Amino acid sequence: MQKRLGLLAAGVFFLQPSCIANAQVPNALERAIEDAQPCRSLKTKVSSFGISVEVGVDKLDSVKIENLQLSVNGNTAEASARGTLACKTSDEALVKGGFSATAEVRLKVDLTTCKMTETSIEIVKTGGRFGDIVKGLETEISGALRRSLERNVAKLCEK
């Protein structure tokens, strides 16, 4: 248990935003989200002049974690975070554009099993050319973020 708490504390340190003057270096949580490539499977239909075209908004543009809070009580860790994910079309796309989605994430982790016991991911704000359709893709976005969180929680608890 002591080792797990030490790993969790180390993980929290690495999950905190880096403060480097005039440079935005992704923190560990932002890199974990980038690694999950949550935009990869996102597709939408766009109609213009009576022609409907499927557009892949499948390229990660940016990830920014605005805040992160973590608490540990016995064998339960709770975390909440707010951040923005932006996805865009490829440069070769016929119809170019993208969206941004700000999400609030809450989770509980059982530190004895290293399993998430509760997860909540809510998209609270959208923007960009395809921002209006993000609510329809919320399940896919949430699923990709959830899988990334599960993998990274498991990494904190290894050995």
What is the overall number of helices?
3
String of helices and strands: HHEEEEEEH
Q: Percent of residues in helical segments? A: 25-40%
- Find the count of extended strands (DSSP E, 2+ residues): 6
Please list the strands of the largest sheet in the order they lie side by side: 3-4-5-6
Mean pLDDT: 77
Estimate the global geometry from the Cα principal axes: elongated
Q: Distance N terminus to C terminus?
A: 11 Å
Major beta-sheet overview? 4 strands, antiparallel
Low-confidence stretches: 1-23
User: Taking Cα atoms only, what radius of gyration do you get, to the nearest Å?
Assistant: 17 Å
- The class by helix and strand makeup works out as alpha+beta
Please indicate the percent range of residues in DSSP E strands (runs of 2 or more). 35-45%
Q: How does this model look, in words?
A:
- The protein has 159 residues and is of the alpha+beta class.
- It has three helices and six strands.
- The strands form two sheets. The protein has a four-stranded antiparallel β-sheet with strand order 3-4-5-6, covered by helices on one side.
- A hairpin with a 2-residue loop joins strand 1 and strand 2.
- The longest helix has 19 residues.
- The radius of gyration is 17 Å and the shape is elongated.
- The N terminus is likely disordered.
